[in-house]
Amino acid sequence: MTNPAKTNPFLETCLGPQGKLASIIPEYEFRQYQTAMAQDILLTLESPGSMLLAEAGTGTGKSLAYLIPIAATKRRSIVSTGTKNLQEQLINKDIPLLNKIIDAPIVSVLLKGRSNYLCQRRLNWFSQNPEFNTVSEKKQWSKLIQWADSTDTGDRSELSFLHDNSNLWNNMNSRREECFGNHCKYFRDCFLMRLKIRAQKADLIIVNHHLYFADTIFARVKNFSTLPDADTVIFDEAHLLEDTASQFLGVHLSHQQLLDFAKMIRRWKPDRTELQGSVWSLDKVLTGLEEGAGLFFSSMPSGEGRFELSEVMNQQTEKMGGVLFERIEVLERELAADKSVPEEFVFEWRSLCKELKDSLLLFLDRSEPGMAWWGEHSRSGNALHAVPVDISEEFSQIIKVGDRSIILTSATLTANNTFDYIIKRLGISDCHAKIYPSEFKYHTQGILYLPRHLPDPNHSEFYPECAKEICEIVKASSGRAFILTTSYAGLNKLKNLLFDSLPFNLLVQGDMPKNSLTDLFKKDIHSVLLATISFWQGVDIPGESLSAVIIDKLPFASPGDPVIKARLQYLRDNGINPFREYQIPSAIMMLKQGLGRLIRSRNDKGLVAIMDHRILVKNYGNRFLHSIPDFYRTSDIKDVTVFFRNTADQYSGHSQALSEP
Known about the structure:
661 residues; single chain; alpha/beta; 7-stranded parallel β-sheet; globular
């Protein structure tokens, strides 16, 4: 697709060895694959309706590789990311850097999900009858009121004193089901509407995948969109698209959702001026709804994690579901009969009643084909979920809007060096696809340790022996290690086995918030961080704080998980080998994400250790080995010690040869 001899002059001016970036970045290093990727993206942007899949190896500089073509074409663009970290990098680092080297700076705006913004109407309702769960919430309330009077954005990120799951904030943030649009008396001053106006005037809109799909699907149902029209959509961290899109193409119903609905209607009561008598008829109806929800959801098992609906939907549960359905219908009728309820409220709330009834019937019937059904426990009660097992057809329709140019990019879009897996899962057709290799010298910067002697991962002695091996590795690396597990069960086993065995501080996921853990890990140079799936991607720790990444098992998704189980059965029913066509490629992509935590710059050096000997002894192991960076490979623990000794001594001239692989 790219002809390096004919690189666009604008790209050469920005990215070339003597270009503008080189003039403002000390020790700038020209990256040929970054320029090649930028050239291909520019050609895609100049071809309306075209699509490019771009796997950009770690260190390619993919953000600037798409931002500079956006600036060159002056096409309004949406960039959708998978993580908050990348959003912050784009807004705080990459876009300001871009604007330093172009003549006409691009105007950008960051749009977050609506729950991140203050709703002034909900704030007003809450302030008339505030309810606090704790003393600290009451103290926070006065600070929040002061902030609400002075903020220009209404963005909760300005409130450092609120924790992530603040009940106080949940009483006044913006919610789709409580938004009355231009019927709201606060519409002119609405923070979301102001932001939408800014976005309409911006050249570049930054969102995350959740907001993009929530907005796109909401627009299909309600014919209303927060996101402006755009000529180009770039999905960065595109390996996350299937799971995100599945969530928004599915159906969800929770105990808390029903309680919040009743609470929402009750909040309106203090504003009523036409209440006749001392009894509000809706009180009794809402109480009935709350009781019905409690009976239905409490008939399911308690505990933690996911459970299959087919195992718990018994006669009693279905009976309680029928009771709940009737009580939603009673509420729907009562809302229509109560003439003092404003018309716009009636329409919106009765629409919500219909959505709740439709969702409940779907879960009680479960005859909808091609769906995965499961329940989930949470601190606020049980929740029910249903998602499509194959989103390929619907996804391809969602992303093809008019003549938009579409870019899907990530460090991990291929398995066994082909795009077949992602193309099939997302239903992509008529696209260009290209790999832009990392320019890191993995063979000299890192070592891959693959012990052959450990027990099979399913053997009872695997984790005790694995822990011994980890101790040897971590002693050689002087701490500075990520231990990544594929399950919480594995995390807990290693935590118990390693806690008293390591001569370094052991930081464990769950003991404190994720950001706090990574900050402490960076500060405590010789610490060890033990974590599971959420640390496999989106964590960037260059330098000596991270010198070893240790992975317990090949990251095959659990076949017992209800969603995975349904996907595997769907493939079998369609004559497709699920292990070969789904489980292996998805595990390869996850492994590549985990390995990507290690080498983050040209100066980084480090070790990757995979404790699972199946990568060496199983036929499919070669597919993993052909997909990951070409680290120097060994199965000799002595090489690990030599590697870290050489790394420590590299500037003193003392080094020792590694054994042959």
